[in-house]
């Protein structure tokens, strides 16, 4: 049944309003986050500089608070893939605890956990869209589409790359080719309207009340040399290695967290985060500020030190997520993988290049290693390519896509092989049990 013009206008207006509200929520969240983070880390802690371990006590208190909220209201915020999975499979997202999700997403970020903000904000916007669908008569039949649009706008606005939000939602590896309820052209138009209104609202609020955007850096372009392309044969395996490290870190820390009661696990996580703030501050927070310092400071570190920061960042991100100080992982992984890229480039090209040339090699290495890691994890090469435009030059996008696609294919085959081996082992175990019973 064709929609009439009146329905199309209603749909467009609701989408514009949705985008505007998404932009306002994101701006307010980031603005409050910046104010509270500044009060703790720029005012309170420096004022007590004589007490070296004050961050441990403050972060432990933050972990305790997160644990109490989590125990009382539930395990929030959910990770991005969980939010999008519920939208697609259950055709609904619980919006009764949006305030709880907001608080649970806010606490870890303020107290220095090695996570990003995208998980909590995506859940909030998804819940809002279904609230609109349940309470606005015309919107009810489009609640799922609104939720997907809201998620895309949230991701695109947070990372300042609108196409990342679209591809992250549409290029879902678990969608199994499902056809959206709306025609593609109409949906892209709605994405554009919603994203435009979100950006307009955020820009207006930034002008009126102060900047609240995340400060992820944008690296300068340097023409890759033939040696850089040849080194992709090493960069992609390095990215796959980091993908495995992050995955196994999540499994190990997850098993450890299961043995620790609620509240205690979050408090421990906060205390560990505080210790990192004292002894290894580069592995705290989401990593965007430290990322901006890399091109200027990486030569001050030995390559082994950068590799150590990379590995510790991966472990800390998995640790925070599994121990209850939850959030997104995109920002931390980009920073960790970039450290590895700068370390490898410094090792391979350091003795044969001046500072500008070495920085160019390092940025290209960081781009390919990051693309391989995220490509292996997400299995969404287009989304990864768009995401990494947040900091890497546009002219690297082809090589980023190639690295993400290859790593995603390799990781996918490995995971299918592991699942097949597990299924075979289970069948053999069941067969042995059947024989014993007989």
Write the layout of secondary structure elements.
Layout: H1 5-47, H2 54-73, H3 80-89, H4 98-110, H5 118-135, H6 143-159, H7 162-170, H8 184-209, H9 226-258, H10 264-279, H11 288-297, H12 303-322, H13 330-349, H14 355-378, H15 381-387, H16 397-437
Helix pairs in contact: 1-4, 1-6, 1-8, 2-4, 2-10, 4-5, 5-6, 6-7, 6-8, 7-15, 9-12, 9-13, 9-14, 9-16, 11-13, 12-13, 13-14, 14-16, 15-16
Main traits of this protein?
single chain; 438 residues; mainly alpha; Clc chloride channel; 16 helices
What does this molecule look like?
- With about 450 residues, the chain is mainly alpha-helical.
- The protein folds into 2 domains: about 5-210, no CATH class; about 225-420, Clc chloride channel.
- The protein is about 75% helix and about 0% strand.
- The protein has 16 helices and no strands.
- It has helices at about 5-45, 55-75, 80-90, 100-110, 120-135, 145-160, 160-170, 185-210, 225-260, 265-280, 290-295, 305-320, 330-350, 355-380, 380-385, 395-435.
- Helix 2 packs antiparallel against helix 10 (about 265-280).
- The radius of gyration is 23 Å and the shape is globular.
- The N and C termini lie far apart (about 60 Å).
């Amino acid at each position: 049944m064709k929609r009439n013009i009146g329905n199309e206008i209603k749909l467009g207006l609701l989408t514009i309003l949705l985008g505007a509200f998404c932009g306002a929520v994101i701006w307010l969240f980031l603005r409050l986050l910046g104010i509270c983070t500044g009060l703790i880390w720029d005012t309170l802690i420096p004022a007590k500089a004589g007490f070296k371990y004050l961050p441990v006590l403050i972060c432990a208190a933050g972990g305790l608070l997160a644990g109490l909220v989590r125990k009382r209201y539930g395990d929030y915020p959910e990770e991005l893939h969980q939010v999008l999975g519920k939208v697609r499979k259950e055709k609904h997202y619980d919006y009764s605890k949006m305030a709880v999700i907001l608080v649970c997403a806010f606490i870890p970020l303020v107290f220095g956990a090695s996570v990003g903000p995208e998980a909590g904000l995506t859940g909030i916007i998804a819940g809002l869209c279904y609230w609109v669908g349940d309470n606005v008569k015309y919107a009810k039949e489009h609640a799922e589409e609104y939720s997907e649009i809201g998620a895309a706008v949230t991701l695109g606005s947070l990372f300042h790359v609108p196409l990342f939000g679209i591809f992250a939602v549409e290029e879902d590896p678990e969608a199994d080719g499902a056809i959206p309820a709306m025609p593609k052209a109409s949906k892209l138009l709605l994405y554009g309207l919603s994203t435009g209104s979100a950006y307009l609202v955020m820009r207006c609020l930034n002008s009126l009340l102060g900047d609240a955007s995340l400060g992820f850096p944008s690296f300068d372009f340097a023409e890759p040399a033939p040696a850089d392309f040849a080194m992709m044969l090493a960069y992609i395996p390095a990215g796959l290695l980091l993908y495995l490290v992050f995955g196994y870190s999540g499994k190990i820390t997850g098993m450890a967290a299961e043995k620790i009661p609620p509240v205690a696990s979050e408090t421990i996580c906060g205390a560990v985060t505080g210790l990192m703030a004292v002894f290894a501050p580069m592995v705290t927070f989401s990593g965007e500020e430290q990322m901006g310092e890399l091109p200027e400071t990486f030569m001050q570190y030995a390559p082994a030190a950068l590799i150590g920061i990379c590995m510790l960042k991966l472990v800390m991100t998995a640790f925070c997520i599994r121990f209850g100080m939850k959030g997104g992982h995109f920002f931390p992984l980009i920073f960790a993988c970039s450290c590895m890229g700068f370390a490898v480039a410094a090792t391979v090209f350091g003795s044969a290049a001046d500072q500008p040339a070495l920085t160019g090699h390092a940025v290209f290495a960081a781009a390919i290693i990051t693309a391989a890691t995220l490509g292996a994890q997400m299995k969404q090469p287009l989304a990864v390519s768009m995401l990494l435009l947040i900091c890497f030059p546009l002219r690297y996008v082809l090589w980023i896509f190639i690295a993400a696609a290859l790593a995603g294919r390799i990781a996918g085959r490995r995971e299918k092989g592991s699942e097949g081996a597990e299924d075979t082992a289970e069948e053999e175990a069941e067969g042995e049990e059947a024989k014993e019973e007989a």
